[in-house]
Design goal:
Elements: H1 2-23, H2 40-44, H3 58-61, E1 71-88, E2 93-95, E3 101-111, E4 116-134, E5 149-167, E6 172-193, E7 201-203, E8 208-209, H4 210-215, E9 228-253, E10 256-263, E11 269-278, H5 280-297, H6 303-316, E12 326-334, E13 340-347, E14 353-362, H7 364-367, E15 370-376, H8 381-387, E16 393-398, E17 404-414, E18 419-428, E19 447-456, E20 461-476, E21 491-509
Amino acid sequence: MKGFTKIYYMKKLLNLIAILLISASISLAQNGTRLIGFDAVTSGRAGTSTGFFDNPSLMMNNPAGLSFLKSSQIDVSLSMMSPEVYFQNKINNTYGKDNLFPLGCISYTHKNSNKLTYGVGIFTQGGMGADFNLKHELYKDQNGSYVEQPYHSKFAVMQGGGSVAYQINKQWSIGVTADVVYGQVEFQMPMSMPPSALKGVINPQTGITFGDLFGALGESGGLGYSEVVASANMSQLKAFGFNGKLGIAYKPNDRFSFGVNYTLPVNLTYKNGSASMDMTYQMNDAYGKVVSMIMQQNPGMSVDEAQKQAMNLFNQMGIDFSKGAKDQYDAQAKFGLPQSLAAGVYFSPGKKLRLALDGEWINWKNAFDKMDISLNNGTNPNINKMMGTQGSMAMSFPMNWENTVVLRTGIEYDVCKKITARAGYAYGTNPVPATTLFPLFPAIVENHITAGLSVKVSKSFVLNAAYEYAFENRQKAASNSYIANEYDNSTSGLENQTFHISFSWLLKKK
């Protein structure tokens, strides 16, 4: 009968893991793309856990602390994130779509009678994203009215693997975590590139390119564009990688503990994606400019005659408007996750009160310097002619994020034998510079407050709940955005609420 019970619960656990993997989705960042906590217990005290050794999420925060857990334990956590994103520029002043993002984590730790403790778990590590319908100066109908465009992003990261902690003596322990990292990326927006990206040659004798034509000023016979815009939609990009953590834990008594954790950087290549590129609005606008130039040079010419002459000019350049300006590509992108170094301390001034403080340095500068995008196997002859390629193109999407420092403070108080209350405050410097700020990567919140509660339903079962609020932060972009002209002097904003619920099942006492 005992064997049957174990098999039954193992099946339930595997089914729950599958549900979490399917339902896990994107999360708006708490610092960059990182969440401040992974379960209701740590989130209730603002994510303090590097030196606070009390639950299996230590696999993500300091695996060495697993040695000081009081029992084998299963933790299951479900969270719901509700962000509010904002964007304002010369022609937009709006909030993004209301989204709810489900998050999930599950973990198991096993206490042996010897000095080893091990654990396995799957954690939603973080991400970011937003959805808008925005006006763009290029996208207008025949009456000159704006045609709103979809702006969508999704970046989601999960980690799953195992941890081992070895207790050197009663006071010291070391631990390691080895994880498989899974990431997803999606983008849909008008993408801008400099005219110089159009390397296709118009006249082999002179070497004049489409970039020269689009970028030169009108008085020089050019079209005067400072950027060339295409509607882009990249989806189904997925990546797998490996991550490791190394932790040290020190606990001389029940009133004090200290921990240090180092997380390795991760290089990710997102593959097997698809991308569409649509330059119809850009080409129509260029065609209209050529028609206007012809009519200015020939005041007596009719519109129809000017249009025919413009069409002939494009045909001479190798552009056939009947073949359109849309194409499909195989897509790939490269960017990673940052290394980090954290230290934390725990102190209990009395039997019912516990305090914690964490500090963490996150190396966004190396991980989010740029996103390298490559598109291949395009077949549209017009786009290939202008780009000067055989259906392939590569571009670097600038990010230029800065390193951050995160401080987390937390408090716990035992209201009675069965109820524990928590609260916390976290501050993290903003990693996003003004030059690359734009509304689809709004990872700019800095201040968080949290509250939480645990109820001991029985000796082996604890129900936990927590609430996080990230105060709205609005940031103004630089006057010369590295992303696109539409973001010059724009303002992006983010406010976030997250609700957590989890349960802890204590399986085996020391």
